[in-house]
């Protein structure tokens, strides 16, 4: 049912309308919303102010994956996610690699792009000449906007005119390349682009013979030059399992990763597993997981075919496993200074710079991937996953504490399924 002025209603009025319109005034529906309100009024008001039309909070479990040794420094990593097996898998991988040198990570670059998109109805040669003559004026027009960023070591690194007329008639870009230091930088980049676009429009009106029309000015969440690499390695003898020699394990692992490199159907699931870990840390540190996801998946398909973000090799008796991915994240700005749990997360990580956070996140993604591939080539993915999922199934079936304890004991060495659990609990 349509409603006018919904955003102007109080939170209580919004809920009243929703219940009357969609829930037949069911009081239990109201209670679902109210039970998630924070009793700390000031904290609740803070959360209400993050977005529009808030009526409650939607909580994610907040967990810790300890023992992450990254560049010889040990971290306890915060993760916010609802999927049952993710934190357990990350923690298991961190512990596995702890005595094998841990994770090594390096930032390759931190450049982030933004573009002024425009149409020019004139000669390309005139536009090129105009841009060369006015490039410095365009840059000078945003001096005030980037003054503070320059003090922090960031700012505009380059500006280029890009001809896109083969794709769309008359379509050009002015591409700005930024370093946003410890900020994710979206607001900074967009402010600079919009100010520069106004200058471009004004100068074009004064100097260009053809019409120039600004279409839009916006950052790109595709950051292929804001890259981080994380890796692990060890002698193959350290990979020995009860069923496989270290070399057999390594060969099987490398082949499994190779499948993800050549087969998109596998690569998507393979990379999704990586993002289980990446997103959980990105969310816990107050960063934009949607932007990270979009950039990562675009990067995975940058060569025209979607492929694995991670790679593995066995060479001279050494197993090596690594990942390279774009990560545009920050540790200042946004909600990092006002969300209490985000502040806690960053303090827990010893107040990292943006580069340090990139290394941590990439390492967690690699750990998550190692755990998944390890399960696939040994016990199978469902054994561990369903053991973790058992808690959710028990909650769904409203098992008593005594039933829960007995079920965990019973299924400790058995396959878990919803049907088997129902039979065990006598719910069939």
Radius of gyration: 26 Å
**Care to count the β-strands?**
10
Q: Main sheet: which strands, in order across?
A: 3-8-10-9
In angstroms, what separates the terminal alpha carbons? 40 Å
Can you tell me the overall shape?
A: globular
- Biggest sheet: strands, sense, closure? 4 strands, antiparallel
CATH class of the largest domain: Alpha Beta
Structure in words:
- This protein is α+β, with helices and mostly antiparallel strands and 428 residues long.
- It folds into 4 domains: 6-48, no CATH class; 64-109 and 227-378, Alpha-Beta Complex (3-hydroxy-3-methylglutaryl-coenzyme A Reductase, Chain A, domain 2); 112-219, Alpha-Beta Plaits, CATH 3.30.70.420; 385-425, no CATH class.
- The chain has 15 helices and 10 strands.
- The chain has helices at residues 11-22, 27-34, 41-48, 86-98, 124-140, 143-151, 186-207, 246-262, 264-284, 289-300, 340-348, 354-377, 381-396, 401-410, 418-425; strands spanning 62-70, 73-80, 104-107, 112-121, 155-163, 171-179, 211-219, 227-235, 310-315, 318-326.
- A 4-stranded antiparallel beta sheet has the order 3-8-10-9. The protein has a 4-stranded antiparallel beta sheet with strand order 5-6-4-7.
- A hairpin with a 7-residue loop joins strand 5 and strand 6 (171-179).
- Helix 4 (86-98) packs across helix 12 (354-377), helix 9 (264-284) packs antiparallel against helix 10 and helix 9 (264-284) packs across helix 12 (354-377).
- The longest helix has 24 residues, at 354-377.
């Amino acid at each position: 049912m349509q409603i006018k002025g919904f955003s102007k209603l109080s939170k209580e009025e919004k809920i009243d309308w929703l219940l009357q319109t969609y829930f037949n005034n069911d009081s239990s529906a109201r209670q679902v919303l109210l039970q998630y309100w924070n009793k700390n009024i000031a904290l609740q008001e803070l959360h209400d102010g993050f977005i529009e039309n808030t009526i409650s909070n939607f909580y994610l479990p907040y967990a810790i994956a300890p023992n992450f040794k990254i560049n010889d420094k040990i971290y306890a990593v915060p993760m916010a996610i609802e999927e049952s097996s993710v934190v357990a898998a990350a923690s298991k991988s961190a512990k596995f690699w702890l005595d094998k040198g841990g994770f090594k990570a390096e930032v390759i670059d931190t450049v982030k792009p933004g573009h002024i998109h425009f149409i020019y109805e004139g000669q390309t040669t005139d536009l090129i000449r105009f841009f060369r003559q006015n490039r410095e004026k365009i840059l000078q027009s945003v001096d005030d906007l980037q003054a503070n960023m320059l003090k922090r070591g960031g700012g505009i690194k380059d500006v280029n005119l890009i001809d896109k007329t083969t794709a769309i008639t008359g379509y050009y870009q002015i591409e700005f390349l930024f370093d946003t230091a410890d900020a994710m930088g979206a607001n900074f980049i967009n402010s600079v682009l919009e100010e520069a676009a106004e200058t471009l429009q004004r100068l074009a009106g004064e100097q260009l013979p053809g019409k120039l029309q600004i279409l839009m000015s916006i950052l790109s969440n595709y950051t292929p030059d804001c890259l981080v690499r994380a890796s692990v390695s060890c002698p193959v003898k350290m990979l020995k399992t009860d069923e496989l020699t270290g070399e057999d394990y390594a060969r099987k692992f490398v082949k499994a990763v190779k499948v993800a490199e050549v087969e998109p159907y596998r690569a998507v699931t393979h990379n999704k597993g990586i993002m289980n870990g990446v997103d959980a840390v990105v969310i816990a540190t107050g960063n934009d997981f949607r932007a990270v996801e979009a950039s990562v998946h675009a990067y995975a398909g940058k060569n025209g075919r979607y492929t694995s973000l991670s790679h593995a090799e066995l060479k001279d008796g050494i197993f090596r496993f690594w990942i390279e991915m774009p990560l545009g994240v920050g540790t200042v700005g946004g909600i990092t200074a006002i969300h209490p749990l985000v502040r806690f997360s960053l303090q827990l990580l010893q107040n990292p710079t943006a580069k340090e956070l990139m290394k941590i996140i990439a390492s967690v993604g690699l750990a998550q991937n190692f755990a998944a591939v390890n399960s696939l080539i040994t016990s199978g993915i469902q054994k561990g996953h369903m053991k973790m999922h058992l808690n959710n199934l028990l909650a769904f079936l409203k098992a008593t504490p005594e039933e829960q304890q007995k079920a965990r004991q019973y299924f400790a060495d058995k396959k878990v399924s919803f049907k088997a659990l129902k039979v065990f609990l006598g719910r069939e």
